[in-house]
Design a protein that fits this description.
five-stranded antiparallel beta sheet; six-stranded antiparallel barrel; 395 residues
């Protein structure tokens, strides 16, 4: 029984192995046939006939405009749909800019307030300047009086000194005369002593006047010193006021400048070629709407951050990127005319011109392709971005 079971087991294993080999062989034959069919199809597609090379192409574009709003406003109506053709100046969406206008008004009020503050930022220093000028004149006058002796009190004292010195000289002459008379016994000692006393009094008068002159000069010098100290103090005060005025003016001017810059930037945000009379309009002559990112009621431009509303493809920049196999690229030349058959309209045939053949190949499905750029002539807007077309190059 055991040998019989082993025999049955070997038969089953052999059948399974045979089945696996048959399946593998079938798959290999099918894959080989499929590859040969694909190659035949590639040759058929790539060589439509003896005079043309056929290539698959995709409709692309080279220019797209992004329309964004970076000031506070609200979209009230979206007037186009994605893929819609638009012309220059055509309304795309309506926006409420009342919030923007409010921001402009606030900035203008702030600018006006800052300008008013700038005008009153400086303290009036005219009185202090006049006081300093007057003091400088007084110091110059007193300095001249002191140096040249032209002070009224000094002149009066000097005159008194001259008179006292004259009297002293006379008294000295008299005392000599009376000394001789006294020596000769003509006059008494009492009389002589009277003249001696007069000489002493005259000398004292001269000494007193000279002392008064010195006191007056000292007083005048002290007054000059006080005036100079006071002048220096006022000049320091003036310098401090000027510095404070300069600092305050600079701070206020900085506020004015900053607000003016903010206002100019905010005003410039609405001065765009795609904003007109509260509407977002097309800034492209022949455009196609793409990527609408807002709906009616959308709040855009919050806190100055740009919100992309939509994009517009420049339809005049539409080209076809045709995938030409490497072995056929030598037959393709810039400037030659090609035939284009849109996949969406196979009964239509358009013309186009080869504008660029890149020096770069790419790999696709195990083969090398070169993406040749063709500028189509499509007056009826048949070709649309993202669509495909067959391109036929002359051999």
């Amino acid at each position: 029984m055991k040998e019989k079971a082993l025999s049955h087991k070997k038969i089953i294993i052999g059948v399974c192995v045979l089945a696996i080999l048959i399946v593998a062989l079938t798959i290999f034959i099918q894959r080989k046939n499929k590859i040969e069919a694909m190659k035949a199809a590639d040759i058929s597609i790539s060589t439509n006939d003896a005079s043309e090379i056929e290539a698959w192409g995709e409709v692309v574009y080279s220019r797209i405009e992004s329309i964004a709003i970076d000031f506070p406003s609200t979209v009230t109506d979206v007037q186009v749909k994605e893929g819609e053709r638009v012309t220059l100046g055509q309304p795309l969406a309506a926006i409420d800019i009342s919030e923007y206008n409010g921001t402009i008004e606030k900035l203008e009020q702030q600018l006006s307030a800052n300008q008013s503050a700038l005008n009153s930022a400086a303290q009036d220093i005219s009185a202090l300047q006049a006081d300093i000028a007057q003091m400088q004149n007084e110091i110059a006058r007193k300095d001249e009086e002191y140096g040249k002796g032209t002070n009224a009190d000094l002149i009066l004292l000097q005159n008194s000194l001259t008179l006292a010195q004259k009297e002293l000289e006379d008294a000295k002459n008299d005392i000599q005369d009376y000394q001789n008379l006294y020596d000769e016994g003509v006059i008494s000692e009492m009389t002589f002593n009277q003249y001696t006393s007069m000489l002493d009094q005259t000398q004292k008068a001269v000494d007193d006047v000279e002392a008064n002159i010195q006191k007056t000069k000292t007083a005048l010098k002290d007054e000059l010193n006080l005036l100079n100290v006071s002048l220096k103090s006022k000049q320091v005060q003036l310098s401090q006021l000027r510095q404070a005025n300069s600092t305050n003016a600079a701070m206020q001017q900085s506020g004015v400048t900053s607000t003016q810059v903010d206002l100019d930037i905010m005003k410039g945000k609405i001065e765009r070629d795609y904003i007109k009379d509260g509407n977002i309009v097309s800034n492209i002559e022949n455009g196609i709407v793409k990527n609408i990112g807002v709906i009616s009621g959308s709040h855009v431009g919050s806190q100055g951050m740009p919100t992309e509303v939509l994009q517009i493809i420049d339809a005049d920049s539409i080209t076809i990127s045709a995938e030409v196999y490497e072995e056929f690229i030598e037959s393709v030349h810039v400037g030659e005319t090609v035939r284009i058959v849109p996949t969406s309209s196979p009964d239509t045939s358009l013309e186009g011109t080869v504008t660029h053949i890149p020096d770069l190949a790419a790999e696709k499905d195990g083969r090398r392709i070169i993406r040749v750029i063709i500028k189509p002539d499509a007056p009826n807007n048949i070709l649309k971005p993202g669509f495909t077309a067959d391109v036929y190059f002359p051999k």
